[in-house]
Here is the input.
Amino acid sequence: MNKRNKVNIKKITVYGMITALAVVLSWLEAQIPPFFPMPGMKIGLTNVIVIISLYKMGSGSAMSVNVLRIVLVSFLFGGPSALLYSLSGGMLSTLVMILLKKTGKLKEITVSIAGGIFHNVGQILIAMLMMNTTSILWYLAVLWFTGAASGALIGLLGYMLVKRLPDKLFE
Amino acid sequence: MKKGRSIFGKIKFDILLVCVLLAVGGVIFLSAFLSGQGGDSVEVRVDGKVTAVYPLAENRTVTINGIGGTNVLVIENGEAYISEADCPDKLCVNQGKISMNGQSVICLPHKTVIEITGEKQRDKSDIDIIVK
Here is the structure.
C-alpha cells in the first residue's frame, strides 16, 4: 500500500514536470517571430517531449501529456480555434507515432518524421473544414516536406535525449 | 562489409518508410503542379462564400472586407498577392505571389481565401452558389 502510494506520487510529479516542460517549449516556440510564410510551418519543439514520454513512459502517457499540453497552452496563449488546430494536428501525429513505435522495427527519428508529417496533415484537414475549402493540394505538398524536415530534426534531438535520460527517472 | 550490412539491416524498415513517405509527398507535389495549369482568374472567398472573381490578366488593386478586418489584394502581370493586411501576424502578406491553378493565399483571422481558378472550377462554384 505504502509502496503503491510512493509510486503514484512519483508518477504525478514526473507527469507534472514533463507537461510543464512541454508548455514552456510551446511558449518558447510562440516567441519566434512568424518568418515562415505559411501557417503551420513550425519547428515543433514540443514534439521532443512527446517522443521522450512515448519512449520512456509509454503510449498512453505520450497522448495524455500532449493533449494536456495543448489544452493548457490554448487556454493560456491561444483561442478556441488554436485549440482545434493544435488538437487535430497533435492527436493525429501522436497516434501515428504510437502505432509506428508499436511495430518495434523503426527508429525514433523515423517515427518522428512520420509524426511531423501527420501533424500538418491533421491541421490541414481541420483547415479544410473550417475554411470550407478543398483546394489544399499546394499547402499539403509544401507542408508535407516541411513536416518531414522538422520531424527529422526533432527526432534526432529526441533520440539523443531518450538515450541519455536515465530510465530510473520515469519508473 | 559484414558490419555495413548489419547496420543496413537494422534500419531497413526506416529507409523503406522514409522512401514511401517521400514518394507520397512527391506524388502530392506533382499532382498539385499538374492541376496548376489553366488558371485564369482570381477568386475571393470570405467565410466560404465567393464574394468576387477577377480576371488574372488585368492589373488591379482591391480592398477585401473580411471578417473583422481588411486585406489589400493586388493583381499584377498575371500574379496575385496580398500587399497589406490589418491582422497582427501578416502571414497572408508573407505567403507571396500566386499564379497557378489551385494555389491560394489564406488569411485565417479574417476567414478570407484568395484562390486562382480556371474555367471548370468557376462553373462549379457558380452552381454551388445557386444551390446555397
